[in-house]
Specification:
Oligomer: homodimer
Strand content of chain A: 15-25%
GO cellular component, one term (chains A, B): cytoplasm
Distance between the termini of chain A: 63 Å
Strand order of the largest sheet of chain A: 5-2-1-6-7-8-11-12
Structural class of chain A: alpha/beta
Number of domains of chain A: 2
Helix content of chain A: 25-40%
Number of strands of chain A: 12
Protein name (chains A, B): 2-dehydropantoate 2-reductase
CATH class of the largest domain in chain A: Alpha Beta
Largest sheet of chain A: 8 strands, mixed
CATH superfamily of the largest domain in chain A: NAD(P)-binding Rossmann-like Domain
CATH topology of the largest domain in chain A: Rossmann fold
Number of helices of chain A: 13
Family (chains A, B): Belongs to the ketopantoate reductase family.
Order of helices and strands of chain A: EHEHEEEEHEHEEEEHEHHHHHHHH
Pfam families (chains A, B): ApbA (PF02558), ApbA_C (PF08546)
Catalytic activity (chains A, B): (R)-pantoate + NADP(+) = 2-dehydropantoate + NADPH + H(+)
């Protein structure tokens, strides 16, 4: 059972990001973690996680306080509400279930207790909750972690866990920073990670998009990690694809009132050490055939925001429709779309 | 030995295109074919070709008059010059050897006898021969065949062989149409194929680029055949990627004085029957990891021609640099580029 001084945290999704968050929270000693797994439940239940982490070292056979193979339905199971629910799944609005449908059973019917923390990419991912759970405080967690699940339960983290936490705007809850600060204290308590308050969530999310909207899809489409991408064709791929895509995000942010720091494009191009040869998540998803892409949040949403303000985004637009094509291919592979039979 | 009434034809490259050309020429009875093979030489030498063709039916254990595992050096081997050399390899100027280097040993030192026929894609592929072999008559062969080599020597042709033959411009040879007409007679003689004279090579090559510059790279990048591409994301991929790319080729052609027929874009979008689910060659190349792409001729050359005339080609430009990235990946896979070691 959770000690009364600990906060109860439900983490949804125990892949490369969720597992490290679970480990880090339990190492900190201020959280009692329930981790809801899907595809890797059996592996983790049997053998625990096998984690090789630049923050935590080698951790073998480890499990958080509670693991589950589904999201708890707290009403049916008569469970007390969680203090925090940390969403670490992919956020893919074009493929059901939506994150709202996923998390609703774990929230009280009318929720003012549980704070949602969206450790997911993209610009306006809180908006669906404004409609479904208008009284729920929703925090943004922006992660700069580099980690990958090599096989079920086997995780390698080769870039330090750095989180920026802040409250998404919500006129109903008038969010103060106290819930964010409490989460940060809990997350930092193990002394292994960098977790800080972001005063301007929208700014921080646009800033991360500079990396994610460009490097994620381009690496995925070309089958190159971020190191190789910089080396490819003597840097021409960076100059003619990555840099223009990043600049379009900077321009769209600016048109939406978000001024990013001078030089952010070059900083993001150089963000990953070249010789680390890191694979952004979308490249991992494409390589693991069958994984869906988060292109609606990474490309579609900034494209729509830019378009509203009249910003031309030809590179982002092309990447968006390419990602749509790849998503359709995955859907067909999974039997989610039917096509006319081949003429023989 | 070749009968004296037959023309001697050397075909370089016996993949999906060259093998069907060899078969068709020998079926016609007016040509004595020498076929130079590389990767599939052993398979064909041992078992012959296994061809399933919509033009020729099932042909098993078939070989042309002569097969070779290399290009003949006619000087060293004291061979008479060929009447025609038909180049059916990929044309990839960024990866050695160049087609000029490839074919030079099979041409007389000062050649006025042998007619070169380039059965290859792209706009200005004759230009390197103007410098290296200024007296050589070079014909353009534009093929609309749909065929694929499933495994070495095993070929399936599911779209009829249609050739358009014409002479590339050359101020030295003042090419008449007689060599082209002679080749057409020889190629059509079996009655199985459609082979006709193209009076305007440049027009015909730009026209084929409408298909090749758009569908080839987009299918390759997305991993979708032309049927699935039309179905993907309810047609959005066609509308936002394929149609703009094709229109840019039409615009660049126009700026270069080549007026393509009204409606050519829609015709090319619909060119392959949807339910045939045909794979353009570049998609086949990407799937068979390790094959190089013809992006310099299909994308680079029209892009440069468009740029000269001030035509904006944002879609073609992006496709070009994406193809460059994929080419670099293939080069790295083949050990043709070195990268700094991974930091551990």
């Amino acid at each position: 059972m959770a000690s009364s001084t600990k906060k109860s945290v439900l983490i949804v999704g125990g892949g490369a990001v969720g597992a490290i968050a679970a480990l880090n929270l339990e190492v900190g000693g201020l959280a009692h973690v329930t981790l809801a797994l899907r595809s890797n439940y059996n592996a983790v239940n049997e053998h625990g996680f096998d984690i090789k982490s630049c923050d935590h070292g080698r951790v073998q056979g480890w499990k958080p306080s509670i693991i589950r193979d589904s999201i708890p339905d707290i009403t049916k199971e008569s469970l007390p509400p969680y203090d925090y629910i940390l969403l670490c799944t992919k956020n893919i609005p074009d493929i059901p279930p939506t994150v709202v449908d996923l998390v609703t059973p774990a929230l009280p019917r009318i929720n003012t207790h549980t704070t949602l923390v969206l450790l997911q990419n993209g610009l306006h991912i809180y908006r669906p909750f404004l409609e479904s759970h208008p009284q729920t405080l929703v925090l943004s967690a922006i992660s700069m972690i580099g980690s990958e699940e090599l096989s079920p339960g086997k995780i390698i983290q080769d870039e330090g866990d750095k989180l920026i936490i802040g409250a998404f705007p919500n006129l109903n809850t008038n969010p103060s920073t106290s819930a964010a600060k409490c989460f940060i204290k809990m997350y930092k308590n193990g002394g292994k990670t960098d977790c800080k308050l972001g005063e301007d969530v929208l700014h921080d999310r646009w800033r991360k998009l500079v990396y994610n909207s460009a490097l994620n899809p381009i690496c995925a489409i070309l089958g190159l990690d971020t190191g190789r991408l910089r080396l490819a064709a003597d840097g021409e791929v960076v100059e003619h694809l990555v840099r223009p895509a990043m600049q379009e995000i900077v321009d769209a942010a600016k048109a939406n009132g978000v001024l990013l720091d001078e030089g952010v494009v070059q900083k993001m191009i150089d963000a990953d050490p070249l010789q680390s040869y890191l694979s952004p998540s979308m490249l991992v998803d494409v390589k693991k055939k069958g994984n869906f892409l988060e292109h609606e949040n990474l490309l579609g949403e900034p494209l729509r925001e830019g378009k509203k303000m009249g910003v031309e985004m030809p590179t982002i637009k092309m990447l968006y429709y390419m990602a749509k094509g790849i998503q359709w291919r995955t859907m067909e592979g999974r039997g989610l779309v039917e096509i006319p039979p081949k003429d023989v």
